[in-house]
Design a protein that fits this description.
There is one protein chain. It contains 19 helices and 27 strands. Helix 2 packs antiparallel against helix 3 and helix 15 (504-520) runs parallel beside helix 16.
Length: 681
C-alpha cells in the first residue's frame, strides 16, 4: 500500500463510517429513548470535531490551489458527500423517529406553533425577562460590517424591510451562550408531560420584538465551524504562554462548514457563504435545530428512569479488598482493573493512601485529559502541602483540553509541585502514576499504568484496562521514563516496558513478522489486536504480509481502519470488526501466539503513526498466566463472538452489522458489553 490519497481518504471516510455506526445506536429499539437521543447528540459533537480538525486541512488545500496525493478536490468532494449524507440521516432520525417516540412517552420539545396559550404566555415572559436583555441585533451597513462570528456560536440572520430604507437590509443576532439551550416548562403547563422549549425556538418566536418598526422578510439560524487546530511551535521559550495566546484566537480560525436551517432563503445562504469564503459544498441545510449537540442536556433534564439505561454501579476490582492497605495488597500481587465494569475508585483510593501515608516520599503522575472532577488535583495539592515530592507531567497540547491542562499546571505550580510539559516535539500520552515509599532502609515503588486517562467521569463511560503493580522491573522502568521526560537524558534499555517513540513500533513490527514467518513454516501464528484506530501504514503492511504467509489475524478496531478494500483476498486470514455499544471502546491490547508462546501487552497507544512515532506512549507486558487468561476471556473472546454490537469490515470497505445467521434455537444474541455488565453487577 503506497502512501497515496487512499490512505488519508480511507482514514477520513472511516471516521465518518464510525459515526454512522454510533448513529445506529440512536436507531436501536432495544435502547431507551433518551439514551438514543444522547447518541444522536454525540454524533453531532463528533462531527464538529471532524470538521474542526480533519476537513480543515482538506478545504485549506483546495482553496489554496494545492493538489497532491493527499489533498485535492476529489478527496474533499468524496468526504463532503459522505458527511452530507450522514447529517441528513441524523436529522431524519431526530425529526421523524426520536422526537415523535419521546412525545408518546411524555417528553416533548415543544415548538412555538404547538404551544398552548398558557405556554406561549410563560415563554413570552421568560423571553422578556431573561433572553431579550442579552440580545443585541447588529444591522449591517457601512458603519456596521459583518460581525466576527466565533466557532460554533449560534446566530440568526434576519432580512428586514422598512419604510426608512428603500432596499431590504440584513441584521445578525447572536444567541447567548450563557443561557441554557433547553428550558423545562413548569409542570402546571405540561399536562402530566415533561415539556421543554429550546432557546432558539424562543428567540425565533419573538424576533419581531427585536425589530419593531420593520418587517421580517426572511430569517434563519446559522452556525459556522472553524479550523480549531492550534499552531504552536514546540520550541517556543514558554509553551504555556504561547498556548494561552493561541487559545484566544482558536474561536476565529478559518471557516470550514456553514450550517443553516432547511428553509433558509437562498439569498441568505449565498450571502453567508460569501462572507465566510466557503464553497457551496460546505453548506449544510438541516431539517431541525442547528447544533443538535447542545440537546445532549435533554436526557439529563428529563431524567425519566424508564427512558434511560438502568443505573450501573461498577464492582470493586477483583483480588483487591476495599478496607485494607493498598500497599500491603500490591506487595503480594498485581491487580487488573477493567473499567467501567470495575471501579476507577480503586485508583483514587491508592492515591489517597499515598498522600496521607507518612512513609510515601514522592508521587509522579502524567496528566493528558483529567476532566472536571477535582479530586486528583486536590490530592496532588495536598501531597505537596504534606511535604512530598510531587512531579506532574502535564500535556499542554491535548487537543481541546489545552485550557484545562494549563489551569492544572498553574494550580500545581502555585503551591510548589514540580510541573513539566514533556519532550519538545512529542506529546506525552502515556498514562502512569508512580509512588515511592520508604520501607525499612529501601525505597519501594508502586505504580498504576492504564490504557485510559485519569478522568473519573470517562472511567464510567469508556472501556479501559489498567494495572496496579509493585513489580520491581516495571516500576523502575517507569521511574526511568519519568526521568527521561524531565531531563531528556537518553532512555536506558528496558527489559519489560515498551515506549514510543523508541521501541513500541519496532517491537510490534517484529512480532507481526515473526508470526508471519511461523505461519509460513506451518506453526501456530495468531494475532489479536484491540485498538481505537489502525492507521499506521507500516503496521498495516506488516499485517497483510503476515496474513499472506498464513497467520490468522483478528482486528477489533473501534474507529478508523485503513486496511485497503483491495486486500480482500486476505480476508480469510484478516478479520476486522468494530464494537459500538453503550460504552465507548477505548482499551488497547495486543496479543501474539507464535508457535504456542503467548505475548500480551496493554498500552496507552493506538496503532496510529502519531502514537507510534510522535508521542510518548507506554506498553506493558502481561506475564501472569491467570491475568492473560482473564484479558482473553474479557477483552478478546466475547468481542470476537459479539453479534449484537459488532460491525464487520466488508469487501468494499464498508461496515455491516454482524447478524446471527444460525436459525437454531440454541443460538442467542451475544453482546460483549452486556456480558461484562452482568458479570460485574
Amino acid at each position: 500500500m503506497k502512501k497515496t490519497v487512499s490512505t488519508l481518504l480511507n482514514r477520513d471516510l472511516s471516521i465518518l463510517s464510525f459515526n454512522e455506526r454510533v448513529l445506529s445506536l440512536a436507531q436501536r429499539e432495544d435502547y431507551p429513548l433518551l439514551e438514543r437521543l444522547r447518541f444522536l447528540c454525540i454524533v453531532a459533537s463528533n462531527l464538529d470535531e471532524f470538521f474542526e480538525v480533519r476537513m480543515a486541512d482538506q478545504l485549506e488545500a483546495i482553496q489554496n490551489g494545492i493538489s497532491n496525493a493527499n489533498f485535492n478536490a476529489e478527496t474533499y468532494e468524496a468526504i463532503s458527500q459522505k458527511a452530507h449524507a450522514l447529517v441528513a440521516k441524523q436529522y431524519h432520525l431526530f425529526e421523524h423517529e426520536l422526537m415523535p417516540a419521546l412525545e408518546k412517552q411524555g417528553v416533548s420539545l415543544v415548538s412555538s406553533h404547538l404551544r398552548t396559550p398558557e405556554q406561549k404566555k410563560w415563554v413570552a415572559q421568560y423571553f422578556q425577562a431573561d433572553v431579550k436583555p442579552l440580545l443585541l441585533p447588529i444591522a449591517l451597513d457601512p458603519s456596521h460590517p459583518f460581525p466576527q462570528v466565533a466557532n460554533k456560536a449560534l446566530h440568526f440572520i434576519v432580512q428586514l424591510e422598512s419604510k426608512a430604507k428603500p432596499t431590504p437590509s440584513i441584521a445578525i443576532v447572536r444567541v447567548p451562550r450563557v443561557l441554557p439551550r433547553v428550558t423545562k416548562l413548569p409542570s402546571r403547563l405540561s399536562k402530566k408531560q415533561q415539556c421543554f422549549v429550546s432557546l432558539t425556538s424562543i428567540i425565533r418566536a419573538h424576533l419581531p420584538d427585536l425589530f419593531q418598526g420593520a418587517k421580517i422578510i426572511n430569517f434563519s439560524q446559522f452556525r459556522v465551524t472553524r479550523n480549531s487546530d492550534l499552531d504552536v511551535e514546540d520550541d517556543v521559550s514558554n509553551l504555556r504562554t504561547a498556548l494561552r495566546e493561541e487559545l484566544a484566537f482558536r474561536p476565529y480560525g478559518e471557516p470550514v462548514r456553514l450550517e443553516v436551517t432547511i428553509d433558509c432563503d437562498e439569498s441568505l445562504s449565498t450571502f453567508l457563504l460569501e462572507q465566510f469564503a466557503l464553497p457551496p459544498s460546505a453548506l449544510y441545510k438541516v431539517n431541525g435545530p442547528v447544533n443538535l449537540g447542545r440537546l445532549i442536556q435533554l436526557p439529563d433534564l428529563a431524567g425519566d428512569a424508564k427512558l434511560l439505561f438502568p443505573t450501573f454501579t461498577p464492582a470493586w476490582p477483583k483480588g483487591l479488598a476495599a478496607n485494607k492497605s493498598m500497599f500491603s495488597q500490591l506487595k503480594k500481587r498485581d491487580v487488573l482493573i477493567h473499567q467501567p465494569f470495575e471501579s476507577f475508585e480503586a485508583v483514587i483510593q491508592l492515591l489517597q493512601e499515598a498522600v496521607h501515608d507518612p512513609d510515601v516520599l514522592a508521587i509522579h503522575q502524567t496528566i493528558y485529559r483529567a476532566g472536571s472532577d477535582p479530586r486528583i488535583l486536590n490530592l496532588l495539592q495536598t501531597a505537596v502541602q504534606r511535604g512530598k515530592e510531587v512531579l506532574v507531567v502535564v500535556e499542554l497540547k491535548a487537543r481541546f483540553d489545552e485550557e484545562a491542562n494549563i489551569n492544572w499546571a498553574e494550580a500545581l505550580e502555585s503551591i510548589g509541585a514540580q510541573v513539566v510539559y514533556g519532550i519538545v516535539g512529542l506529546k506525552t500520552h502515556a498514562k502512569m502514576l508512580l509512588i515511592m515509599r520508604r520501607e525499612g532502609r529501601a525505597i519501594k515503588r508502586y505504580a498504576h499504568v492504564s490504557t485510559g486517562n485519569y478522568n473519573p467521569k470517562t472511567a464510567k463511560l469508556y472501556t479501559d484496562l489498567s494495572m496496579l503493580t509493585s513489580d520491581l522491573t516495571i516500576t523502575r522502568e517507569i521511574e526511568q521514563l519519568f526521568r527521561h521526560l524531565t531531563s531528556e537524558l537518553p532512555l536506558p534499555k528496558m527489559r519489560k516496558l515498551l515506549a514510543s517513540p523508541f521501541t513500541l513500533h519496532s517491537t510490534m513490527l517484529r512480532y507481526i513478522n515473526a508470526a508471519g514467518n511461523a505461519a509460513a513454516k506451518g506453526k501456530t501464528a495468531k494475532i489479536i489486536i484491540k485498538t481505537n484506530s489502525l492507521t499506521d501504514e507500516a503496521l498495516v503492511l506488516a499485517l497483510m504480509r503476515a496474513a499472506k504467509k498464513g497467520a490468522t489475524i483478528d482486528l477489533i478496531v473501534r474507529s478508523a481502519c485503513i486496511l485497503p478494500p483491495g486486500a480482500k483476498d486476505l480476508h480469510d486470514r484478516i478479520h476486522v470488526r468494530s464494537i459500538v455499544g453503550r460504552f465507548l471502546e477505548h482499551s488497547r491490547a495486543f496479543y501474539f501466539d507464535i508457535d504456542g508462546k503467548v505475548k500480551l501487552w496493554l498500552a496507552s497507544a493506538d496503532w496510529m503513526s502519531r502514537n507510534m512515532l510522535r508521542r510518548v506512549e507506554i506498553a506493558w507486558p502481561i506475564l501472569d498466566t491467570d491475568m492473560q487468561k482473564r484479558i482473553v476471556d474479557e477483552c478478546f473472546t466475547p468481542y470476537l463472538q459479539d453479534n449484537v454490537d459488532a460491525w464487520a469490515l466488508t469487501n468494499d470497505g464498508s461496515y455491516q452489522l454482524v447478524q446471527n445467521t444460525d436459525s437454531s434455537e440454541l443460538t442467542t444474541p451475544t453482546s460483549a458489553q452486556t456480558i461484562l455488565l452482568q458479570k460485574n453487577r
